[in-house]
């Protein structure tokens, strides 16, 4: 199995020391990375010992080793899943040919663009979350935030390795640019809009890790099918780490809901003002946050009709979610797919060539997966005996990309006039008052085993540790 | 219904209330035992070989659930797909109604042969037992430690001697600790923790370091409340970089009369059989010899007192050179009809490199007889890198002798006959 060399300056399982040019290039990038981490990593946390999960190899026994580590000493590195012998391209025009171990010249620009776009989201998450350590609801949550942070940092490494190794000077320049952009900065923002949104409070963070990191799962899964083998192997390993991020979000929201329901039952009320006065987050506010994060995230999949998506698929750069498990011809030339469109101010379904609708296919797969988790949150509410259901809004609600960006639609899918939208927007999306209220609950709780009033403790500790385990040691 | 239908199994289940359906377990399972629909991720009891590959990569902990079930009544995939929560454990009465007696130990699923039979897909750890031999004495554990009433026990150093050749770069010590009138009952194969004196670079007390006990149950000196440890001074890390091991240097530098803080004992499965006709095969490298010394010495004392009934002892011991092999001299002095010793040296000048697994293959005929005898127990202790080679050698020995490794491997695990402790 591929074990990871930690004696090199840059931990890796790709025999980096055998390629001195690449090693030097990455070692030149590293100080800038560390400086970026120092500037943009979690605030005031350089000296804590955090109970982090680190990989020592990429096989099941080795990749989840736990121990207290100072975050700047976390062993960020370059880890690829083991190569699959004689892997073949399994979709698109090159189906049946050997997977590429190098970048084909004609696809160089597109591949670089895909890798840079994916890479850019990774440091963006770190930047978006950097202030949250100061308002963590428990040591357990603080530890989870830090784990997400270091892994996002490692994912940046994973993409920068590909850029440096396979894209020469262009790749090195793109690598530098990844450290120069900043989330939300006006003159040099991150590439995708969702990664320029603020994550000002923990409800937003959990929504982000549930919805937006789930987008990461789908994008990474699609890239794990790629004919460019190093990209497929890198993203496969990233997926195993991404799962923890989604867990943080799903369980975080679930715990907030549980605490709210408990307060509703204790106080025998669903009166929002009484619940807010009791310091818990009312369910309608959770619904509005859900609406916001869901709609911003589904924009990340791109336009409903996209010739780029068709090109990426035809040329074998990016497959569909679980491409290998689908039973069709994996070329999709004659197929069609229904996408939503606006005609005469109404939403209508329109058949478009399947290849041009691949963004929509991935978005629909994502939506199905997201709904599953929302239903699990509803189980928590149902178990408490409270008649309330959370729902994901209509696909056309609050969209800013593609054909649907031109129309205002209610969460149920009704097309609205501007006036109607304005009159109701505060019922559907978090208002300034909502954000101010949620923000007011954010105080730091870091005594081992203690939790903020607005969130329930987790069902299980990390690595089966007890509830009062010292996840973070403040030195 | 035949007897196998009445067997109990430990069924692996996933908690649907905690699982986030991230697919990590399904992607990682080497035998495709995990499947899902839009509602749940579930484990097929007929396919799961309890290899545990899915356990640590699961981000939620939902994967780590087990139920004692009758083999024929195991929850089906279809049934699990409808669950919103895990069913409660069956009570003794419910199991009895299903034909499983309360004292039936659950047998774990048979360990299938590695898919292609190729060494790089061989998972040696899955054959290691988690149960002690049936005749092992009862082990006490965690009498002292963070969760015990007494956090530590104080020992006095009663001896500290070097047991490898003097003047060599490697320095292994035999340290004797005396507990006076305080209780610390230990068995051969157990370990204790030592808390090195002082603080680390950030001013915190050091963590405990764990060492196997090298003396038998009635003390380094029979009838005394003491024990011994075999400790190698660590001056290099695994990559050969200079590093001074905190615990090993602390221990090797102790003087007679010094006080040491101890926690433990630890370990409840790497224990020797008490049944005096049982055979013991010991395979070790370096300081992995500590538990082997303890077992050998306990058998030697039994033999002296006339309580030994002819169980065989076989030792495979590896080191880089004979100068680096702890206890080399004393081992040479043991009677040949008491213990069958095989040394493997990997760095003897002008000699080919030999590893413990090479010797095991040379002794295949004797090992095959011992493997086939259910009174034989195997113990492996030492560097992690030896483990796979040793278990592969056992597999080859079994197969060459016409024994099914599928059956044998599963039996070694289920009957507490193969114990792996590597680091």
Automatic annotation (TrEMBL), chain A:
GO cellular component annotations of the record: cytosol
Single GO MF descriptor: oxidoreductase activity
A biological-process GO annotation: phenylacetate catabolic process
InterPro entries xrefs: Aromatic_CoA_ox/epox, Benzoyl_CoA_Oase_BoxB, Ferritin-like_SF, RNR-like
PANTHER family in UniProt: 1,2-PHENYLACETYL-COA EPOXIDASE, SUBUNIT C (PTHR30458:SF0), PHENYLACETIC ACID DEGRADATION PROTEIN PAA (PTHR30458)
NCBIfam families in the record: benzo_boxB
Protein name (Swiss-Prot/TrEMBL): Benzoyl-CoA oxygenase, component B
UniProtKB/TrEMBL annotation, chain B:
Span of domain FAD-binding FR-type: 150-272
Enzyme class: oxidoreductase
Subunit structure: Homodimer.
UniProt: NADP(+) binding residues: 212, 232, 287, 346-347, 353, 382-383, 421
Highest taxon, organism lineage: Bacteria
Keyword Metal-binding: yes
Molecular function terms from GO: iron-sulfur cluster binding; metal ion binding; oxidoreductase activity
Gene3D superfamilies: 3.30.70.20, Nucleotide-binding domain of ferredoxin-NADP reductase (FNR) module (3.40.50.80), Translation factors (2.40.30.10)
Record-annotated 4Fe-4S ferredoxin-type domain positions: 10-39, 41-68
Keywords: FAD, Flavoprotein, Iron, Iron-sulfur, Metal-binding, NADP, Oxidoreductase
Listed name of the protein: Benzoyl-CoA oxygenase component A
The protein's required cofactors: FAD
Chemical reaction(s) catalysed: benzoyl-CoA + NADPH + O2 + H(+) = 2,3-epoxy-2,3-dihydrobenzoyl-CoA + NADP(+) + H2O
Keyword NADP annotated: yes
EC number assigned by the record: 1.14.13.208
């Amino acid at each position: 199995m591929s074990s990871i060399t930690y004696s090199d300056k840059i931990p890796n399982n790709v025999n980096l020391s055998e390629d001195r040019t690449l090693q030097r290039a990455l070692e030149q990038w590293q100080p800038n990375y560390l400086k970026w981490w120092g500037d943009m990593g979690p605030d005031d946390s350089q000296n804590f010992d955090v109970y982090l999960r680190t990989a020592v190899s990429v096989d099941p026994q080795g990749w989840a080793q736990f121990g207290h580590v100072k975050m700047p000493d976390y062993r960020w590195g370059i880890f690829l899943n083991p190569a699959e012998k004689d892997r073949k391209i399994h979709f698109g025009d090159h189906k049946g040919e050997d997977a590429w171990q190098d970048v084909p010249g004609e696809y160089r620009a597109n591949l670089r663009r895909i890798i840079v776009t994916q890479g850019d989201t990774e440091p963006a998450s770190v930047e978006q979350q950097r202030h949250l350590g100061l308002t963590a609801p428990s040591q357990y949550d603080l530890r989870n935030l830090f784990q997400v942070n270091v892994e996002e940092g490692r994912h940046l490494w994973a993409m920068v390795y590909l850029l440096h190794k396979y894209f020469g000077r262009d790749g090195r320049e793109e690598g530098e640019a990844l450290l120069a952009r900043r989330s939300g900065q006006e003159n040099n923002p991150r590439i995708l809009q969702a990664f320029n949104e603020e994550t000002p409070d923990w409800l937003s963070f959990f929504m982000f890790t549930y919805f937006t990191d789930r987008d990461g799962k789908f994008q990474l899964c699609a890239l794990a099918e790629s004919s460019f083998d190093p990209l497929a192997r890198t993203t496969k390993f990233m997926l195993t780490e991404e799962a923890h991020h989604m867990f943080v979000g799903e369980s975080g929201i679930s715990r907030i809901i549980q605490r709210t329901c408990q307060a509703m039952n204790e106080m025998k009320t669903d009166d929002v003002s009484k619940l807010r006065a009791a310091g818990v987050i009312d369910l309608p506010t959770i619904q509005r946050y859900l609406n916001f994060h869901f709609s911003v995230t589904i924009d990340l999949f791109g336009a409903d009709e996209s010739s780029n998506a068709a090109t990426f698929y035809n040329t074998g750069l990016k497959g569909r979610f679980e491409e290998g498990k689908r039973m069709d011809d994996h070329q999709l030339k004659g197929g069609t797919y229904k996408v939503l469109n606006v005609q005469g101010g109404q939403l209508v379904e329109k058949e478009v060539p399947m290849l041009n609708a691949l963004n929509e296919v991935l978005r629909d797969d994502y939506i199905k997966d997201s709904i599953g988790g929302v239903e699990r949150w509803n189980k928590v509410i149902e178990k408490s005996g409270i008649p309330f259901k959370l729902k994901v809004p209509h696909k056309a609600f609050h969209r800013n990309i593609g054909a649907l960006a031109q129309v205002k639609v209610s969460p149920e899918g009704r097309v609205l006039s501007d006036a109607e939208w304005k009159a109701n927007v505060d019922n559907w999306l978090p208002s300034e008052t909502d954000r101010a209220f949620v923000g007011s609950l954010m105080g730091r709780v870091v005594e081992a085993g203690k939790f903020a009033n607005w969130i329930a403790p987790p069902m299980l500790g990390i690595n089966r540790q007890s509830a009062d385990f010292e996840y973070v040691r403040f030195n | 219904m035949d007897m196998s239908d009445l067997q109990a199994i430990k069924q692996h289940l996933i908690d649907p209330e905690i699982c986030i359906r991230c697919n990590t377990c399904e992607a990682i399972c080497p035998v495709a035992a995990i499947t899902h629909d839009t509602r749940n991720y579930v484990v097929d009891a007929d396919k799961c070989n309890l290899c545990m590959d899915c356990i640590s990569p699961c981000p939620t902990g939902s994967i780590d659930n087990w139920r004692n079930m009758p083999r024929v009544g195991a929850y089906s995939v279809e049934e699990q797909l409808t669950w919103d929560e895990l069913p409660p454990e069956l009570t003794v009465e419910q199991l009895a109604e299903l034909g499983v007696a309360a004292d039936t130990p659950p047998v774990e699923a048979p360990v299938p042969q590695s898919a292609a039979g190729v060494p790089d897909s061989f998972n040696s750890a899955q054959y290691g037992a988690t149960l002690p031999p049936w005749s092992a004495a009862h082990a006490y554990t965690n009498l002292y430690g963070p969760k015990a009433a007494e956090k530590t026990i104080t020992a006095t150093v009663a001896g500290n001697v070097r047991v490898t050749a003097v003047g060599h770069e490697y320095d292994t010590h035999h340290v004797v600790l005396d507990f006076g009138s305080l209780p610390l009952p230990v068995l051969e194969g157990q370990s204790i923790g030592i808390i090195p004196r002082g603080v680390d670079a950030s001013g915190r007390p050091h963590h405990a370091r764990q060492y196997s006990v090298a003396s038998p149950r009635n003390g380094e000196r029979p009838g005394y409340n003491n024990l011994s440890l075999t400790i190698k001074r660590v001056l290099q890390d695994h990559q050969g970089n200079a590093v001074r091991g905190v615990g090993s240097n602390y221990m090797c530098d102790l003087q007679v009369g010094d006080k040491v803080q101890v926690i433990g004992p630890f370990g409840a499965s790497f224990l020797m059989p008490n049944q005096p006709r049982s055979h013991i095969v010991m395979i070790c490298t370096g300081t992995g010899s500590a538990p082997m010394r303890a077992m050998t010495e306990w058998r030697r004392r039994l033999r002296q007192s006339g309580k030994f009934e002819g169980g065989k002892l076989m030792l495979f011991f590896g080191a880089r050179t004979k100068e680096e092999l702890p206890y080399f001299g004393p081992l040479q002095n043991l009677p040949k009809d008491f213990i069958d010793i095989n040394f493997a040296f990997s760095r003897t000048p002008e000699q080919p490199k030999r590893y413990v697994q090479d010797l095991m293959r040379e002794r295949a005929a004797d090992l095959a007889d011992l493997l086939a005898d259910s009174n034989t127990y195997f113990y492996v202790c030492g560097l992690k890198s030896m483990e796979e080679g040793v278990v592969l050698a056992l597999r080859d020995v079994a197969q060459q002798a016409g024994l099914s490794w599928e059956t044998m491997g599963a039996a070694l695990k289920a009957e507490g006959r193969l114990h792996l402790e590597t680091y």
